[in-house]
Amino acid sequence: MSAPTQASHASSSAVPRRQFLRVAAAGLAVPWLGPLPGRAGEPPTETIPPRVRFGLLTDLHYAEKEPAGTRHYRDTLVKLAAAKEEFARRRVDFVVELGDVIDTAASVDVEKSYLQRIAAEFAAFPGRPHFVLGNHCVETLTKAEFLEIVKQPAAHYGFDRGGWHFVVLDACYRSDGAPYGRKNSTWTDANMPAAEVDWLRTDLQNARGPSIVFVHQRLDGAGAYLIKNAEAVRQVLEESGKVRAVFQGHYHKNALTHIHGIPYCTLAGMIEGKGGETNAFAVASVLPDGAIHVEGFGKQSSYRW
After folding, report:
1. Which pLDDT band, with edges at 50, 70 and 90, does 19 fall under?
2. I need a surface site. Which of 111, 150, 163, 197 has the fewest CB within 10 A?
3. pLDDT digits (tens, 9 = 90+) for 157-205
4. 77 Cβ contact partners less than 8 Å away, ≥ 6 residues apart
5. Residue ranges per domain, the chain?
6. How far apart are CA 203 and CA 67, in angstroms?
């Protein structure tokens, strides 16, 4: 499947260091090109304690099955343990898994066993875990089954921390409005139903502080990885005037675009590659001045805006 194209207003994260220094000196916002991330013993980059700090990871695709191409399903447990250690060291307030925490199984019972194993791992993480539904999460399972196992009351909801508002969204719906589940969907048909879009508008209107949004499928770019009604969702985010960042998964590669002032940050998939050296996760810090720092580990890029 070809990668989604970047719109003309998109900004690439690959900025030469000299150009970065020139632009930074002019006071313009650009992605951060910091030191190589993930080195053992490296201290936090912030000199001022953040208002909120949270862990980010996506596309774990955990399963007890043999590798397929670049996907090493069992290696997820080793990579997840490394992320847990780093999140504990950084004392994150919560952790967000951006979807596809498990991979597809041949039966409901086997897929439940995958999710039960991975949910037990997350239960030992520092801070509360928040799970964004991905297409693989509800390929065989229903949403109700998934949410029951991870002990999460809803697939989309908002919560507050440190004066900021956070929103978890669910785009695992077919074009006809039916929710994914029991192998009734295709991953290229991702949609956010009108009722959820209306809820999002109201939730952001009622938010008392700046907001950050989490979703599995992409709201930027074009092509198969995009939510089909992404433009309508983006309009709600833009009209609120409160959204400072959107974090996404699904694509398995680093990507960063800016659309009408909102950064859309797509994280690298943890599943890609054999062994812990191919890990990918991040720690995001929201500073008192409103700046957001994303510190990547392994294959995950780092950014500041």
Report:
1. very low
2. 163
3. 999 999 999 999 999 999 999 999 999 999 999 999 999 999 999 999 9
4. 62, 121
5. 50-304
6. 41
Please check whether residue 149 is in contact with residue 115, taking contact to mean a CB–CB distance below 8 angstroms: yes
- Dig out the tokens for 272 from the structure: 């890609």
User: Would you say how long the chain is, in residues?
Assistant: 305
In the β-sheet with 280-286, what is the strand arrangement from edge to edge?
Answer: 128-131, 94-97, 52-57, 280-286, 292-298, 303-304
- Cα separations (Å) of 49 from 46, 194, 281? 7, 39, 21
- Identity of the residue numbered 13: S
Tokens encoding 258: 């800016």
Maximum CA extent, the chain? 57
Q: What percent of the chain has pLDDT over 90?
A: 81
Residue 228's φ and ψ, nearest 5 degrees, are -65, -35
Average per-residue pLDDT for the chain: 87
**271: three-class secondary structure by DSSP:** coil
Instruction: Give me the sign of the Cα torsion angle 150, 155, 160, 161.
Output: positive
Contact status, residue 135 vs residue 101, Cβ threshold 8 Å: no
List, in sequence order, every beta strand (DSSP E) within 162-291.
164-168, 211-214, 243-248, 255-259, 262-266, 280-286
Q: Counting beta carbons within 10 angstroms of the beta carbon of residue 252, is it exposed (0 to 12), middle (13 to 18) or buried (19 or more)? A: buried
Q: How far is the CA of 114 from the CAs of 86, 104, 164, 186, in angstroms? A: 23, 9, 33, 21
CATH code for residues 50-304: 3.60.21.10
